[in-house]
């Protein structure tokens, strides 16, 4: 297992993010997905984030990324969603016809940590500390 480090800590913070298009409109194709990924990768370094896997369906994207202890996930997500929404609507004007108002992304999202061990194993490990 490869761990990340900084001056004061060792860590492994993997996240699985799902972002959904407003009203579940089916507007994502390969070209739009590639542009959304480019924007994501451009913003990542500013928040100490490393992009991993990326995939999409017509109405949502799945992103695997790594953070660090000083990563402010909510600020990163707001920055990404704002910038990508603005740029995608500007670069692909046909999308505006399929969405109402100024929104591109849904306000909600799904963010899941992806630890290596099941939670029961971690819980048991913590419970067993100091027992041996």
UniProtKB/TrEMBL annotation:
The UniProt entry's coiled-coil ranges are none
| SMART domains attached to this UniProt entry | Y1_Tnp
Give the signal peptide, or none: none
Domain of life, per UniProt, equals Bacteria
InterPro entries linked to this entry: Transposase_17 (IPR002686), Transposase_17_sf (IPR036515)
All residue ranges annotated as the Transposase IS200-like domain in the record: 10-129
Question: What GO terms are given for molecular function?
Answer: DNA binding; transposase activity
Q: Which GO terms describe its biological process?
A: DNA transposition
Q: What is this protein called?
A: Transposase
Instruction: Name its species.
Output: Clostridium pasteurianum BC1
At the highest ranks, the source species' classification is: Bacteria, Bacillati, Bacillota, Clostridia, Eubacteriales
